[in-house]
Amino acid sequence: MARSMSSTADRHLTLEEIARLSGVSKSTVSRVINQQPNVSQNVRQRVQAVIQDTGYRPNLAAQTLVSKRSWMIGLVLPRSVSSFFTDPYFPRLLQGIAQGCNKYDYTLGLFLVGSKEDEEKILPRVSRKGMLDGVLIQSGQIGDQLIDRLVNLDLPVVVIGSPIHSYEVSFIDVDNISGAYNAVSHLIRQGYQRIGTITGLTGGSATADRLEGYKKALIERGRNPEQSLITEGDYTEAGGYFAMQQLLPAKPDAVFAASDLMAIGAMRAVREAGLIIPKDVAFVGFDDVSVASYANPQLTTIRQPIARFGTSAVEILIDLIENGIKPARRIIMDTELIIRDSCGASRRN
């Protein structure tokens, strides 16, 4: 038996040959390969041992036809190609998603949707029957429009971030309200009086929740949020820079930015205005991407577990694929305040 298996290892094997070497029927081998029930543990182990010893690789197309699974999931990101490669959040998210796919033997397909035209082109490919077992989609202005269309298809979908509308759809998110609340509360405890915020683009759930957390922290301490201290960015460094220029006339002594990239841009605007961080203006960001710890001064921020976020999204999607899409699964993950130099805490303690 060992000699036969060794001699066949270097040539292309058929299902019939694996069945002969295992001493079982072809249909039994097929059930083992496709992880179907009604196979005894002893027989399953014997077939798997032959497959491992011979280096047999099932025909993917045939396996897909039998199992009605492509073993491929799609990731739809509402971003242009340029913003995908310049925003450090997305490589971290993709790292976690790729780890999840590798762990569960799935192939990942990436779809970037930077415009309505992109959406029209990509939707038929994403929804084509048999192409994908499920879809991960990042919530966002374009992303939420696409969710509307995907939820009507009989396709497992997990939204990364809370969808704007009350979809009956599974999603995973961090507690953005609590994270922003903790950021602003920390600035209040440090004694800052005029705390401004740079929000993300209006219309996104993360933008709305982080603004809500900002206001909640102020109101609970008897402060009325001033509109002059609230300005909108777009989650980019340039957006943070221009938003900070709009905030400067209101004379904030601290700023909570809804992303680290915007905080970095805002800090540049403050330095160009001749002000010192954190002596004149303190900062807290959100995300804890790599640039936060490299900034000068290092950026205090709200850490969200971005890579684990991606891996967990894959696990939820596989649960939907294998166990059905109803009821919807909703997961909210915690954030953590990471204190560095930009908030002035180390100088005040």
Explained architecture:
This protein is an alpha/beta fold and 349 residues long. The chain folds into three domains: 2-67, lambda repressor-like DNA-binding domains (434 Repressor (Amino-terminal Domain)), CATH 1.10.260; 72-174 and 306-332, Rossmann fold, CATH 3.40.50; 176-305 and 337-348, Rossmann fold. Helix content is 48%, strand content 16%. The protein has 16 helices and twelve strands. The strands form two sheets. It has a six-stranded parallel β-sheet with strand order 2-1-3-4-5-11, with helices on both faces. It has a six-stranded mixed β-sheet with strand order 7-6-8-9-10-12, sandwiched between helices. Mean pLDDT is 87; it is low at 1-11.
What structural keywords apply?
434 Repressor (Amino-terminal Domain), Rossmann fold, six-stranded parallel sheet, 16 helices, six-stranded mixed sheet, disordered N terminus, alpha/beta, 12 strands
Summary, kept brief:
By secondary structure, the chain is of the alpha/beta class. It has 16 helices and twelve strands.
Topology:
Layout: H1 2-8, H2 15-22, H3 26-33, H4 41-54, H5 60-67, E1 72-77, H6 81-86, H7 89-103, E2 107-112, H8 116-127, E3 134-138, H9 141-150, E4 157-160, E5 170-174, H10 176-189, E6 195-199, H11 205-220, E7 230-232, H12 237-247, E8 254-257, H13 260-272, E9 282-287, H14 290-294, E10 300-303, H15 306-323, E11 330-333, E12 336-338, H16 345-348
Parallel strand pairs: 1-2, 1-3, 3-4, 4-5, 5-11, 6-7, 6-8, 8-9, 9-10
Antiparallel strand pairs: 10-12
Helix pairs in contact: 2-3, 2-4, 7-15, 8-9, 10-11, 12-13
